[in-house]
Amino acid sequence: MTRLVDHYGRTGAAAITSVIWALPMAAWAGSSDLSPIDQTAYPKMALAIGLVMLVIWFALLAWIARTPVALRQRRLDLTQMSQAEKRWTLGLIAFGAGLIAWLNAAATVDWAPLGPALASGKPGPILFASALAIFLAAMLAGIAVSWRKSRQAFMKRTSASTHPV
Fold first, then answer.
1. Are 68 and 152 in contact (CB under 8 A)?
2. Which of 25, 54, 74 is where one domain is finished?
3. Are residues 42 and 94 in the same domain?
4. Alpha carbons 88 and 165: distance in angstroms, whole number
5. For 39, left (φ over 0), alpha (ψ -120 to 50), or beta?
6. From CA 158, how far away is CA 153, in angstroms rounded?
7. C-alpha span between 8 and 77 (Å, rounded)
8. Residues 40, 93: one domain?
9. Which residue did the predictor score with more confidence, 13 or 136?
10. DSSP secondary structure of 27-95
11. What confidence tens digit (pLDDT) does each residue in 61-85 have?
12. Which of 15, 118, 125, 162 yields a CA-CA distance of 20 to 30 A from 89?
């Protein structure tokens, strides 16, 4: 844990370790959605695993908070980030969450009826498919722009700290 905190800082280590509860919770959400239909998923088991891992993550957060951190510039350290860097990183997270939501929806929906509906030439299905494509393009473009701007803000912060004026 000390190496993880030293490399990524407390915020980065907390974000990385959050995966241990986020993935089981995502499985729970997906299995809850599918379970009433096909009776093959076990949402209560996924929820239980996710909640146990959430408690373990809280223990890891306490460990991370007690871990000493060497003073140096880190990419994901909220206390060191400039306002621009925080803003663009938040944008990156928001667009990333939008992409994940789009992918989750695409993976859990039966798309078989959309083909014939599009072939019928009715405006409703065409508008729906267009809206889905526009949303996907917006999320990908938002990720690209946010990533670039966040990186530029980080580079500006690190160059300012190494070259004082």
1. no
2. 74
3. no
4. 25
5. left
6. 9
7. 8
8. no
9. 136
10. HHHHHHHHHHHHS---HHHHHHHHHHHHHHHHHHHHHHHHS---SS--TT-TTT--HHHHHHHHHHHHH
11. 999 989 888 777 777 777 788 899 9
12. 162
Give the structural domain span for 44.
Answer: 1-74
DSSP for 2-14 reads HHHHHHHHHHHHH
Q: Report yes or no: 12 and 77 within 8 Å, Cβ to Cβ.
A: yes
Whole-number mean pLDDT of the chain?
83
Q: Could you identify the residue written with the tokens 């907390």?
A: 14
Final residue of a domain: which of 23, 52, 74?
74
Helix (H) or strand (E) holding 113: none
110 vs 55: CA distance, rounded Å = 35
Helices 83-108/19-38 angle, 10° precision: 20
Task: Map tokens 């891992």 to a residue.
Answer: 53
Residue at 26: amino acid letter: A
Q: pTM, whole model, 2 decimals?
A: 0.67
Count of domains in the chain? 2
